[in-house]
Amino acid sequence: MRLGDGAMTKAPFSCNEGKGAAGFMTRVLASLVASKRLKLQYGSVKRRRLSSKAYRNHGAAHVVRNPLQKPLAWPRYGLPLCSRPTRPTPVLSEACPEPRRRVEGLALLLVTSLLLVGLAGCLPRAVSPGEEMVFVPAGAFWMGSNEGDADEGPMHRVYLEAFWIDRYEVTNARYAEFLNATQGDPGRCGGHICADTKAENPDSHLLYQEGQYVAERGYDDHPMTEVSWHGAKAYCEHYGKRLPSEAEWEKAARGTEGATYPWGEEFDPHKLNSDYRLGDTTPVGSYPEGASPYGVCDVAGNVWEWVADWYEAYPGSAYRSPFFGHKYKVVRGGSWNHPADDARCARRDIAHPDRRLRVVGFRCARDN
User: Fold this and answer.
1) Which residues in the chain belong to E strands, given as ranges?
2) What is the per-residue burial (b if ≥16 Cβ within 10 Å, else e) of 159-170?
């Protein structure tokens, strides 16, 4: 029985090894600053040098090293090491050190600022407070299954551009923040009902008290449910994101090699919330061992998740269904009261986009 029929039924980070715009800008500007510093230093040497005796006596104590000689390592984000300057560092006098130090300090500050500006173009941007996203690189993956339901086949290769997806499902508390921020906009969900509150639906964990939306106590970090497809879409767009496509969701869940479950081929009840074992949703991220190859949590169990697509047959499929077309939206991932088979990465179910269900939530994605 379909949900739509009323049933309850840090990707490793890369900036292309410094070959992108950020890397090119950083190398050019660092070279320019290094060249300027060397000119300043050689100019000082012409005006005043240490004698050979003074050099022998004082040696390295008077050597002012170019800070750019030391490679700047950024191990967290995998940036390549900066190359060393090829020109030697001269021995300088201690006479008038302060002006030179001020110039060096300004140069270091400039280089550091430019590096950070360059990195800003590569790092993920936070678009909604408290929501972490993971990177899924471009490439092909195996989508669908030849051993599941008829609408899952045939298994086929799909190429996707790189994208970002929320690590966790959107919580009740986050959705309440969205509703509070958009209360003055009657068309925030395209004229449709965004979600039910507890006053309208006893299964909801969203309350409306004294003119504000709040999550029911004890359910702040549980996935938002009783939310329509339109309400999920509006939330994502409010924060500069969107709902993932069905293909994006499946790649984020199973990786590139067509795994049955996010963690592998065998079902493990200890890696997800399903089969009505707990009788309710659990806080997002409660099963880190069940995360996908990209680190996406709860893509199996807890709640089904809305995706952007209408329910259609896959390319090359001979299967036909009266539910195909612009009637139902696809939901993915199984839920806390659904069996193990529904937690398979290839499993598809459907629901009407206006429906609000206690077993359906969502997460957001965005383009790279």
Assistant:
1) 133-136, 139-143, 156-160, 163-166, 206-209, 212-215, 304-310, 329-332, 349-351, 360-361, 365-367
2) ebeebbbbbbbb
> Per-residue pLDDT averaged across 195-203, rounded?
96
**Mean pLDDT estimate for the chain:** 78
pLDDT band at residue 109 under the 50/70/90 scheme? low
**pLDDT for residue 64:** 38
Q: Under DSSP, is residue 168 helix (H, G, I), strand (E, B) or coil?
A: coil
Which superfamily, per CATH, for 128-367?
Answer: paralog of FGE (formylglycine-generating enzyme) (3.90.1580.10)
Domain spans in the chain, listed from the N-terminal domain onward: 16-120, 128-367
pLDDT digits (tens, 9 = 90+) for 68-93: 333 333 333 333 333 333 444 444 44
Pick from 221, 236, 333: nearest CA to 285: 221
- Contacts of 213 by beta carbon, 8 Å cutoff, 6+ apart: 175, 176, 179, 180, 197, 206, 207
